[in-house]
Design goal:
- It is a single chain.
- By secondary structure, the chain is α+β, with helices and mostly antiparallel strands.
- The chain folds into 3 domains: 2-299, Beta-galactosidase, Chain A, domain 5 (Distorted Sandwich), CATH 2.70.98.60; 305-394 and 435-459 and 499-618, Aldolase class I (TIM Barrel), CATH 3.20.20.70; 620-723, Immunoglobulin-like.
- The chain contains 14 helices and 41 strands.
- Strands 5, 6, 7, 8, 11, 12, 14, 15, 19 and 20 form a 10-stranded antiparallel β-sheet that branches. The chain has an 8-stranded parallel barrel with strand order 21-22-23-29-30-31-32-33, surrounded by 4 helices. A 5-stranded antiparallel β-sheet has the order 34-35-36-41-38, with helices on both faces.
- The chain starts with a strand and ends with a helix.
- The relative contact order is 0.09.
Length: 724
């Protein structure tokens, strides 16, 4: 046996090649390997580098239940060679393995990123044999031994953070121990195995309808963590189970058990998996999210939007609600321009004489809503110095759309010989060139004839397991559609490089970096209650880079009597929710009184002074991640020499809050003596001070509901400014 030891970007890795040419992944951590942590009995059969399952092959020993372990021919894959090279991102290592019996080979890619403790991994499987093979499963990353560091029982030291997600309840992280998940240690550690396992999956086109495709596992004894995300816009799966005396982690895209996916590979054919990222940390959750933030910036399409962070007004939320008319738009455009918005998006309904929901698909303007045409309004938007945008739902066609009955079935998903539809919409199939050509024409017309520079793409259905047309499996049809859709987006940006496309799926139900490696903005929620939205905003940088996380700011147009101070605080609360992310301004701005209009404009003016910091910042959470029962929540962003801190009081009787400032943030600021300044609202000074002994910010929050935005700097800068 010989070892391949890697220490790259603070990741300690050990692989082994046995005398039988089995390739093993023995270690992947922020700490060096202690060989005594390996369960000796597990080494001959355990620690597989590649987990791959083909149809018709026996597995050599028990796997208990639906766990994807002891895969065949995964356990037979033999090491051939590996290459080690550098590219624009960093180190790229490619491992080559082969199953001698079938002739199936795998090229396994590990892309490192200079300075970041994270890899991106994917595989290409090729049938180099003489017989057809059916691929049922392949893991992007399979690592046995995630619990092995430290002396405590795994029941005592392991905690996992899982990001639950759902409509209007996005980014809802929960922390669990393994006993809480029904995975207690009940046998001798060296032989522990069970039929249950933790498995988190998505099946369908809404990649984040129940969970974000990511998680964080921490070892509380030695303070290490391993984290991951699957960068795919559809079906995905990860699982943790016990085998050979260790816990394993396996993650990947669709599979047969959970996604109704399999792929037939004829001799000479190949399949490439969806990519995933895996990283490590020795300093906690905030550091892991900072690493993912920088990784996401490296893998996404370069674009001006994420450099400039323009302010967008959208007429939907707590405003027109999908019933736009020319008459309603003009005063909104005026108010948005006056406030300092830079884009103006006409949301759903611009194409529908009646209900906008089930008539989508043809995308012809409604002359009932816009008697002089939509272009009249978009020209007006341009005349006010804003760039116009419109809402589009490009993957569906409503059952009342005139085109739907004229088109052949192969435009749509089909199962059991019938078109698939959900919520009165058919699912379009982007594998069909005619579908892509139709939507090319729609987008090109919007850009050419209407001067549109922004498109909010929405997606409001879930078509289920996939389509049977022209596919080996319904899941295969689904995956190929999803890849075709991403390819279509790529083609749009090649034709219209300055076009901004927002990724919305009933809010944040497709929050993934398959989509966000293309689209520059992600809708984080459709949450209508601004008190609840603060929770989503505070947690948003876990799933999305700050500069891509669109948050609604919608001062309310109340009919009931509310005190002037409460009205004022409501506006401030709304604006603070968006000011460290991407502002999606909405609300009936034209109907606000002068004071509230001024508060909106002040927030946008301040945002324009800090957005160049936002685009390069790393997030932190002084109070931990926000929960929906929390009275006070917070979010911080830091860059070298400066940090911003948003604090929201949602309820409760506390008059002040103490916010710890971590060593990472203090180091970035360059000193232990810090000054704290309230930068919004700037009409009044907020009572906030930094305690250099306790390393905390103490902020007064005397009102029942309120929010403030603070700036932290080294104290000497404030003194220097006073003296000058």
């Amino acid at each position: 046996m010989h070892f391949i030891d890697l220490h790259e970007n603070q990741i300690y890795i050990r692989l082994a090649v046995t005398d039988n040419r089995d390739l093993k992944l023995l270690h992947f951590s922020a700490l060096p390997l202690k060989e005594e942590d390996l369960v000796a009995e597990a080494i001959p059969e355990g620690f597989p580098f590649l987990s791959i399952n083909l149809s018709g092959f026996d597995r050599p020993y028990e796997r208990h239940g639906n766990k994807y372990i002891v895969t065949a021919p995964g356990y037979r894959m033999k090491y051939l060679s590996h290459s080690d090279e550098r590219n624009e991102y960093g180190r790229l290592i490619t491992f080559h393995t082969k199953d001698e019996e079938t002739g199936v080979t795998a090229d396994s890619f590990w892309q490192f990123y200079d300075g970041l403790p994270v890899i991106r991994t994917w595989h290409t499987v090729t049938n180099n044999g003489t017989e057809a093979q059916t691929l049922e499963y392949i893991a992007n990353f399979h690592y046995e031994g995630i619990e092995k560091e430290g002396s405590l029982s795994r029941d005592e030291k392991l905690k996992i953070r899982i990001p639950h997600n759902g409509w209007q309840r996005e980014l809802n992280w929960k922390t669990y121990t393994f006993p809480e998940l029904g995975m207690e240690l009940v046998q001798e550690p060296s032989i522990q195995r069970s039929s249950n396992h933790l498995h988190i999956s998505n099946t369908g086109n809404w990649s984040a309808k129940e969970y974000l495709p990511m998680a964080y596992l921490e070892n509380t004894e030695v303070h290490t963590g391993i984290f991951w995300e699957i960068d795919h816009n559809g079906s995905w799966h990860w699982e943790i189970g016990d085998q050979n005396g260790h816990f394993y982690l396996a993650l990947g895209g669709p599979n047969e058990l959970y996604s109704h996916w399999f792929k037939n590979l004829k001799p000479g054919e190949h399949f490439t998996t969806v990519p995933a990222a895996v990283g490590v940390t020795g300093t906690g959750f905030d550091d892991a999210m900072g690493t993912l933030t920088e990784y996401r910036r490296k893998i996404r399409r370069k674009n001006q939007d994420n450099e400039k962070l323009p302010v967008i007004f959208n007429d939907y939320m707590n405003c027109l609600w999908g019933h736009p008319t020319a008459e309603e738009e003009y005063p909104l455009v005026d108010a948005a321009a006056e406030a300092g918005c830079e884009y103006f998006c006409i949301d759903a309904g611009w194409y529908a004489d009646g209900d906008w929901w089930d008539s989508v698909g043809e995308w012809e303007e409604s002359r009932k809503r816009f008697p002089e045409g939509v272009k009249k309004v978009t020209d007006y938007i341009r005349s006010k110095g804003l760039i116009p945008g419109v809402w589009l739902e490009p993957e569906v066609m409503g059952i009342r759309c005139g085109l739907a009955g004229k088109l052949p079935d192969d435009w749509f998903f089909v199962r059991h010989g019938k078109r698939v539809y959900d919520r009165s919409r058919f699912q379009l199939d982007y594998r069909n060139p005619a579908v892509r050509a139709h939507m090319d024409e729609v987008v090109d017309k919007l850009v050419r004839d209407y001067g549109v520079g922004y498109i909010k793409t929405d997606y409001n259905i879930e078509p289920g397991i996939g389509t049977e047309l022209y596919a080996d499996s319904v899941g295969d049809g689904m995956l190929e559609h999803e890849r075709a859709y991403l390819s279509w987006l790529d083609s749009l940006f090649r034709r219209h490089p300055e076009l901004i496309i927002e990724n919305c799926s009933s809010g944040g139900l497709r929050m993934d970096y398959g989509m966000l490696s293309r689209c520059s903005i992600q809708s984080t929620s459709d949450q209508e209650n601004y008190l609840q939205y603060a929770v989503i905003a505070a947690n948003a940088p876990t799933g999305v880079t700050p500069e891509q996380a669109a948050v609604w700011a919608y001062p309310m147009n109340h009919e009931e009597a509310i005190s002037p101070d409460a009205l004022r605080e409501e506006v401030i609360f709304n604006m603070v929710s968006a000011m460290l992310l991407r502002i999606h301004q909405s609300g009936h701005l034209a109907k606000l009184d002068a004071e509230r209009k001024a508060l909106v404009k002040q927030a946008l003016d301040i945002y324009k002074t800090i957005r160049q910091d936002i685009r390069i910042s790393r997030p932190f959470w002084p109070l931990g991640l926000a929960g929906y029962s929390d009275e006070i929540v917070s979010l911080g962003l830091f860059v070298e020499g400066k940090a911003y801190l948003a604090v929201w009081k949602r309820s409760g009787n506390a008059d002040c809050v103490t916010l710890p400032v971590s060593a990472a943030v203090r180091n970035a600021l360059g000193g232990e003596e810090l000054s704290v300044t309230c930068i919004y609202p700037d009409r009044e000074s907020a009572d906030a001070v930094y305690d250099p002994v306790q390393k905390t910010v103490k902020a007064a929050l005397p009102k029942p509901v309120m929010a403030r935005l603070f700036e932290l700097k080294p104290a000497y800068e404030k003194a220097d400014a006073k003296n000058s």
